Amino acid sequence: MDADFTETSALKSTSTELADARAADAAADVDDFSALAPRGSSLEWSELMASKLWPVAVLVLGGSLWAQLFGLGLVAEGQFDQPRLSALVAYLIPLFLLVAGVWSRAPVILLTLFMVGSLPGLLFLPDQEKLLLGEGSSMLRIGLTLALFLAIASAGSGEDVGSDVPHEPLANGEGSDAQETWVMQRFVMARIGVLAVLFALPAYSVFQDPEVASSLSKFYPDAPHVARTFLGLIHFFVWSVAAYMMVLVPSLNMEYDHRRLARKLGEQYRELTRKRIGLRVLAWVGVSAGMIGVMLLLT
Amino acid sequence: MRATIYDTFGLGLLLGSTFFFYQTISFLAQKDYVSGVIAMAIGFLVIRVGVEVSKLAILIRRESND
Lengths: 299, 66
Fold this sequence. Notes:
The structure holds two protein chains of two kinds.
Chain A: H1 2-79, H2 85-104, H3 107-124, H4 127-133, H5 136-156, H6 159-162, H7 178-207, H8 210-219, H9 224-271, H10 274-298
Helix pairs in contact in A: 1-2, 1-3, 1-5, 2-3, 3-9, 4-9, 5-9, 7-9, 8-9
Chain B: H1 2-29, H2 33-65
Helix pairs in contact in B: 1-2
């Protein structure tokens, strides 16, 4: 009995020591994690942002943009005796594209097709709603929503597209050169200048050009001011997409493009042989000769 | 030198796209929606080419700096 008691107490003390040791290890682990906490938490945050918050933010902003553009038109259609089916489809297409873009995370759907898909809906808007959209505060609100939408949608879309490019370290000094920074600044500033021209010239044609004004009064005799507002909206959309294509995307993706181009050039260098080059030249000569032959036959 | 030529050409293309957007406005003002959309698409394509040429200019400049 005594022996049993002794064994039991020995086991207890051993298990207590083991528990203490585990507790110490756990404390050490906690210390280790606390040292890594900022990096770990930022990773978790970025993963959370990419997986959960990004679709919600894009859906909310895109939905808000859609509601600002077509909400009144949709309500007006509901009040008509016979709602126009084509108008309803045109209003709903951007919403469908928005959901498809968020689901697939394809930049081309969110940033191009969603914008282009909104244009037919603008054509179908009743005159009163077009005028309401053309008011100063509405344009400002839509512009801010569009800018936020473009920024957030471009930040999270197409992540799997870029993941196949290895993030190799850049060569020594590359990317940190002061001259390179100046080149990038010049790149961005020159394009902002072009954007200013791209805003000013079509804006002049919409609101000041006498030729456009006469066309508007000739082809839209009932309400030329509504047509002018419609043209202003189209111009605004074109300018927003151009700003995205000309300044935002090239500035953000320069390093990615650099790596991709270097990789593609390397692949082509390895794959191109004399035989393949000869075949390509022959193929293009054949295509050109065929096109010239078709043109001669047609004329 | 090559980089400067590419850069100038790219900027020229970007500026040239303004012409197509101007034409878009003119076509839409005349209720010629198909021509307007085509001119708009050409304008965006010209912008795309201009951006690619400008990127090439930056890459050439980088390579020559290295």
